[in-house]
Structures are given as structure tokens and as C-alpha cells.
Amino acid sequence: MKIPFLILNGILCIILISCSRNNTAIFNPDATEITGENTPSQLKYTSWVDSIHKQPWQWMYGKYSTNYTDGNRSFGFKTSIKCRKDSALNALISVASIPIFNSLASPDSVYYINKKDRCFGKQPISFFESLLGVELSMQNIQELFLGLPLGFKDSMKYVSKFNVKGDSIYVSATLNGVKPITCHYGSSVKSPRLTWQRIFSLEDSTELNIQYDQWGKHGLMDIPSLIDVYITSKKQNIHVILTYERFELNSPQDIYLQIPDDYAPCK
Fold first, then answer.
1. What gap in Å lies between CA 168 and CA 203, rounded to an integer?
2. Measured between alpha carbons, how far is 229 from 198 in angstroms, rounded to an integer?
3. Beta-carbon neighbour count of residue 148 at 10 Å?
4. Alpha helix locations (H) across the chain?
5. Are 27 and 158 in contact (CB under 8 A)?
6. Are 173 and 162 in contact (CB under 8 A)?
């Protein structure tokens, strides 16, 4: 079971980092600062971040070619994601066209099937915090694959300052909660979508850097077609490249997990 769980942990570490937070955000500018009280450009930018995160959607399906390395191991595999907003997510991992690991996540639990060892199991979402050293949220899965700002909440209260450097613009906020999280959301001034984002937890010594290198148009939304992820943590450094081969937005999906009768609980 070690290899499937290694792969699953890498994917979960990428897509399930949660910002433990309350509703207060404090900017921490570290580039050229534009100041002033509620200037039109500042209000427009704050509204832009909010509008990106609020883009309407209900369903998503994506099939990704995935390259994973952690300094000790390197894997190439396929990842299929089916998701209904805020409700359920199914992730299937295949190697050489053979499904080896299937899972179904709800907001509070993860059910999984290890096809290689013909076994199944269930864990609370909190179980993965003990493995990865970070808190977990299903919403962050959706945000990563849809190119939305991770951990962003429209109830945040922003100081009316933002940063511009070169042709890029970004927000830098510290979210005060059980564990303070620093979030940076970056964009080109010429394009109303994210080009990168950085999430950092000082307490966990975990940093997540995401670069969106290519995009495709699906309905009214721009969806990242190439996602480059770097994770630095106490346990290991991980680099994952996700390239979508197929993507569907707002097409209803069958999301379920069927456990074969002859499978036993995983040990």
C-alpha cells in the first residue's frame, strides 16, 4: 500500500492545503506600494480578486497527465478528478492505464480503494494533517484546478493598499486564525486571471507555490491547462506538473465509489 499512499499524499498535499482563518486579513506589502484611501484603481483590484473567486460553476471533470517528484522518487501517472461544488470529489489514479487507487472525499471524510492490494478504508479529513503537517479542505481542491485563489474569502476585510511591480500585480494578505497563513495572489495587469499564487504557513514550515503556465477557455471561465506546483515542507520537497488532457465544466458527473465484495479492510 505504500506506493499508492505516497502518490495520494503528494496529490493531497498539493490540492488540500487549507487556510485556517477568521475573517480578518492584514496586508503585508513587500514591493512598490501604492497608497491612498479607497482610490478607484484599488477598489477595482479588490473587486477583481473577489470576482475571480466567485465565478459560477457546479461541476468539473478533468483528466491530467501528472509528473511527481519528491527528491527520492519520481512517478508518471494519470489523475482523473470529478467534483461537485462543496459536496463530493472522486479522484482516480492510474499507472500504465491500470487504475491502482480510487477515492471519494466528502467535506469531512475520505473513502479509498487500493486496487493493487484489493483492500479499502476510510479516514477523516483530519487524518491527512498528521501525514502532511497541514490542515485540509475540500474547497482547496476546486480552487487549485479551477485557477481560483486558494483560501480566499469574500468576507475578508482588506486594507486599501496593493502592490504593483513591473507588469504584474498582486495581493499579499496574512490570514489570522488558529495558524496564521500568508497568501499571495498574482496576476498580469493585462489579464484578469491568476498567473501564480503562494501560500505559506510559518508554524507548519510549509510553502506552496503554484504557477499557471497555460490556459483554456471553457464556457465563460478560463481554466488552467498546465499547473506547476512546488511544495516545501519539513517532511519533503515536492514538485508536481499537472497537464490536462481533457476537461469538462458544468457537465453533471456520476460521483460514487463502489467497494467490491471480496475486498478486505486495508491494514
1. 29
2. 10
3. 23
4. 2-15, 40-53, 127-132, 138-146
5. yes
6. no
CB 38 within 8 A of CB 55: no
Name which of 202, 208, 201, 253 is nearest 230 in CA terms.
208
Provide the residue type at 225 as one letter.
S
For the chain, the distance separating the N- and C-terminal CA atoms, rounded to the nearest angstrom, is: 9
User: Strands 264-265 and 221-232: what pairing?
Assistant: unpaired
3-class DSSP state for residue 128?
helix
**Coil/strand/helix, residue 35:** coil
Alpha-carbon gap, residue 201 to 223, rounded angstroms: 26
Measured CA to CA, the distance from residue 45 to residue 159 in angstroms comes to 12
Residuewise pLDDT in 10s, the chain (267 residues): 344 444 445 454 444 433 333 333 333 333 333 333 334 444 445 566 777 888 899 999 999 999 988 888 888 999 999 999 988 888 898 988 899 889 888 888 888 999 989 999 998 866 655 544 445 567 777 888 999 988 777 655 544 345 566 677 777 777 666 677 788 888 877 777 899 998 888 887 888 899 998 999 998 899 999 999 998 888 788 899 999 999 999 999 999 899 999 999 998
Residue 43 C-alpha cell reads as 477598489
Q: Are 14 and 134 in contact (CB under 8 A)?
A: no
- Residue 179 C-alpha from the chain's centroid: 18
Eight-class DSSP state of 194: -
Amino acid at 153: K
Any residues with CB less than 8 A from the CB of 245 and at least 6 apart, and which?
A: 63, 64, 65
Measured distance CA(180)–CA(203) in Å, rounded? 8
Report the alpha-carbon distance of residue 213 to residue 242 in Å, rounded. Answer: 11
